[in-house]
């Protein structure tokens, strides 16, 4: 049977990747709707909303990248535990 710590790290990495994917996709639908479907929408309010969506998309991409890095670290730690196991 596998070491519980290794299983925990592998499971945690999988959950972190799933969360990163969800966060990265969270603003895609509103961003796509505002930038493609509502092309004729114009004015200061439209510009402000598009700018805010772009900022949130950037923030979400950064958070997702950080979560993926943490998942990679969990995988690396699990691999190190496997290699050091007798």
Could you please describe the fold and organization of this structure?
The protein has 86 residues and is mostly helical. The protein has a single domain, classed as Helix Hairpins (Orthogonal Bundle), CATH 1.10.287. 86% of the residues lie in helices and 0% in strands. The protein contains three helices and no strands. The protein has helices spanning 4-26, 28-37, 44-84. The mean pLDDT is 90.
Secondary structure layout plus pairing:
Blueprint: H1 4-26, H2 28-37, H3 44-84
Keywords:
single chain, 86 residues, mainly alpha, Helix Hairpins, 86% helix, rod-shaped
CATH class: Mainly Alpha
Summing up helix and strand content along with how strands pair, one would put the structural category as mainly alpha
Determine the mean pLDDT: 90
Shape: rod-shaped
Q: What radius of gyration results from the CA coordinates? A: 19 Å
End-to-end span in angstroms? Answer: 13 Å
Order of helices and strands: HHH
Helix content bin: over 70%
Instruction: Estimate the strand proportion.
Output: under 5%
The total tally of domains equals: 1
Query: Helix count?
Result: 3
Q: In summary, what is this structure?
A:
With 86 residues, the chain is mainly α. It has helices at 4-26, 28-37, 44-84. The protein is built from 3 helices and no strands.
């Amino acid at each position: 049977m596998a070491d519980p710590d290794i299983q925990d790290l592998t499971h945690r990495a999988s959950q972190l990747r799933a969360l990163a994917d969800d966060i990265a996709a969270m603003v895609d639908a509103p961003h796509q709707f505002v930038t493609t479907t509502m092309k004729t929408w114009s004015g200061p309010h439209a510009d402000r909303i598009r700018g805010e969506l772009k900022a949130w998309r950037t923030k979400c991409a950064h958070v997702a990248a950080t979560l993926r890095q943490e998942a990679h670290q969990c995988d690396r730690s699990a691999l190190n535990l496997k290699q050091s196991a007798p």
